[in-house]
Design goal:
alpha/beta; 6-stranded parallel β-sheet; 3-stranded parallel β-sheet; 15% strand; Phosphotriesterase; Metal_Hydrolase; hydrolase activity
């Protein structure tokens, strides 16, 4: 049976419910000093607001070493009634202190990822349900290639989906060449994030034709200039026959972006983005993108 691995255990994929397929409850990075997502009470309030808007599940893409606070996620899930999927994996090298990267490079990344997927993260007992990795701007550096190769190895050992940060929405085809072409990961096990940040319809269609998942996330303060293009991009993919490959997320990465701190936050995905997309592609497809698709994208048989 296809199941989604949440922080409270595995559930049937069809029970996931309305899902924010790409977001963050906790996140710390040297690139975002003073903007950390590290407030437990605020995270609880944000999840409660998302639940009140009709949300049922959130996939947190915060990977290893970036303050994901895995040990706090089960109680947050129980307190709010929102299912949470946690990530293993690594982001770009720039998001880590050099000492952290040196330590990680001293071991086998694939073994770390597999351990966090199957045994648990540290002493928390919380098992990750996805592998997060990241590309670069229109290319893949040595760090990206190493982490993606490890992610592919971990996928082959567990069946876990691989979620990819595309820098400014670029490099999608390079990522697919590496993960699916060189490393043999089935395209339907790959989720490409931030496609709205580079609204190139040709690349979108080529990526979708591979069978991978295309995640459109926002609104994003840093990339607001392309947010308004998202309905157009989603409609173009649906009209080209790729409506069944789409995911939606909020991607809240700073404290000021939370709804409880004055930003749009997680509820905005359901409060405004949903309605705007209904105008573009109809309520039936949007409902499937928010409910059926995440279960398929994050679900696996967990070998």
């Amino acid at each position: 049976m296809t199941r989604v691995r949440t922080v409270l255990g595995d559930i049937p994929a069809e029970e996931l419910g309305v899902c924010d397929a790409h977001d963050h409850l906790f996140l710390r990075s040297p690139r975002l000093p003073g903007q950390e997502l590290d407030d437990l009470a605020a995270a609880r309030s944000e999840l409660a607001a998302f639940r009140a808007a009709g949300g049922a599940a959130v996939a947190q893409w915060t990977p290893h070493g970036m303050g994901r606070r895995a040990g706090d996620l089960p109680e947050l899930s129980r307190a709010t009634g929102v299912r949470i999927v946690c990530a293993t994996g690594l982001h770009q090298a720039a998001h880590y202190d050099p000492g952290v990267l040196d330590r990680l490079r001293g071991g086998r990344l694939a073994e770390l990822f597999v351990s966090e997927l199957t045994e648990g993260i540290g002493t928390t007992g919380v098992r990750a349900g996805l592998i997060k990795v990241a590309g670069g701007f229109h290319g893949l550096d040595a760090h990206a290639r190493r982490t993606m190769a490890a992610a592919a190895e971990a996928h082959h050992a567990t069946g876990a989906p691989i979620a990819v940060h595309l820098e400014l929405g670029t490099g999608a085809l390079d990522v697919l060449d590496l993960l699916c072409g060189e490393s043999g990961v089935p395209a339907e096990r790959v989720i490409l994030g931030h496609l709205n940040r580079s609204p190139d319809p040709v690349t979108h269609r080529e990526a979708a034709a591979s069978g991978c998942w295309l995640a459109f996330d926002g609104p994003s303060r840093a990339h607001h200039a392309t947010d308004w293009r998202m309905p157009e991009a989603v409609r173009a993919l649906a009209e080209a026959g790729f409506g069944d490959r789409l995911l939606l997320g909020g991607d809240t990465v700073t404290a000021g972006a939370r709804s409880v701190d004055g930003g749009p936050g997680m509820p905005y995905l359901l409060r405004r983005v949903r309605q705007r997309l209904v105008q573009a592609v109809g309520a039936d497809l949007v409902d499937r993108v928010l409910t059926e698709h995440p279960g398929r994208a994050f679900g696996t048989d967990w070998s």
